[in-house]
Design goal:
Elements (H helix, E strand, L loop, with lengths): L12 E2 L10 E2 L5 H26 L3 H11 L23 E7 L4 H24 L13 E8 L9 H10 L5 E7 L11 H14 L11 E3 L4 H11 L4 E8 L4 H14 L3 E8 L1
Parallel strand pairs: 3-4, 3-7, 4-5, 5-6, 7-8
Antiparallel strand pairs: 1-2
Length: 277
């Protein structure tokens, strides 16, 4: 990698959970450096696909595989740290409100995965020991609300697998997910009525949302944030809610003000944290 790129700062988001046996990182392609990084890894993946196809067809397998390995090896990756993040202390709250704007959803995927791993762990313990320790729970928030707001429908493909995994394994409804597509008129508007009707029929028939391609229903337009805070305050009285926002500065002031307002006017305490890019 050219030396001039070595010490630049780039917003790489870790999207694997502490309990995972791998490390996953999501990187937005924006500019020369990240474009070159994508191209570099893209060539390696293409070489792997070519090698596998050659193996299946048994045509010059050795030559193709050897040349692919020789010329397009994956680069070595070194990780330094640890680095702080606004959401790193999420376990100290009773309830979580996670809000991602566009690519800002990435930091919260690792949190959702960690919560999901805890759910699976609890289920395994209960299935083995039954009522003997059926009340066992890992430490951490009792419930999480995830709001993902994006203009691009294709963005939902990034974490389709995670969304489906949550829908399949979260039998106790610990994680509540809301996808919002802002490039479509809000629900109830005549201009979006047709797509909403088709969406509803498709989800009822196959359990899959035609917009996100996952089992999580997609809403249109933007969330009513005041209603979101009001509903949480009513549902979780006397609780400490960690509000974590990642995205452009667009929503920062509104979410911060709402956190302060509802902390002062209700028995629920909202603690606001943000990460802008």
């Amino acid at each position: 990698m050219p030396r001039r790129f070595a010490f630049r700062m780039h917003p790489f988001s870790i999207t694997s959970a502490p309990g995972d046996d791998y490390l996953s990182v999501h990187i937005r392609t924006l500019g020369d450096w990240t474009s070159e990084l994508r191209n570099l890894f893209g060539k390696c993946f293409e070489a792997q696909v070519t090698s596998k196809k050659a193996t299946l067809s048994r045509l010059e397998t050795t030559v193709v595989a050897d040349s692919a390995t020789e010329d397009t090896r994956f680069p070595k990756v070194f990780i330094d740290g640890p680095y702080g993040a606004p959401a790193q202390n999420y376990k100290k709250y009773d309830i979580l409100l996670l809000i991602g704007l566009g690519i800002g959803a990435t930091p919260f995927i690792s949190i959702l995965k960690d919560l999901l791993n805890n759910i699976k762990s609890n289920d395994e313990v209960e299935s083995i020991h039954g009522s003997e320790i059926g009340s066992f729970k890992n430490s951490g928030p009792g419930r999480a609300y995830f709001y993902w707001v994006t203009r691009e429908q294709g963005s939902f493909d990034w974490f389709k697998g995670v969304m489906n995994e949550v829908a399949d394994n979260d039998h106790s409804d610990v994680i509540e997910m809301h996808n919002y597509l802002t490039s479509v008129y809000e629900e109830g508007d005549a201009r979006s009525a047709l797509i909403a009707m088709v969406q509803s029929l498709q989800h009822a028939k196959n359990g899959v949302d035609i917009v996100s391609g996952s089992k999580i229903r997609t809403h249109f337009a933007r969330p009513n944030w005041r209603k979101v805070f009001s509903d949480l305050a009513n549902a979780h009285k006397n609780s400490r809610i960690g509000v974590f926002y990642c995205g452009s500065p667009t929503l920062t002031k509104q979410l911060k003000d709402l956190s302060k307002e509802f902390s002062q006017t209700t028995t629920t305490r909202f603690h606001f944290h943000k990460e802008n890019f």
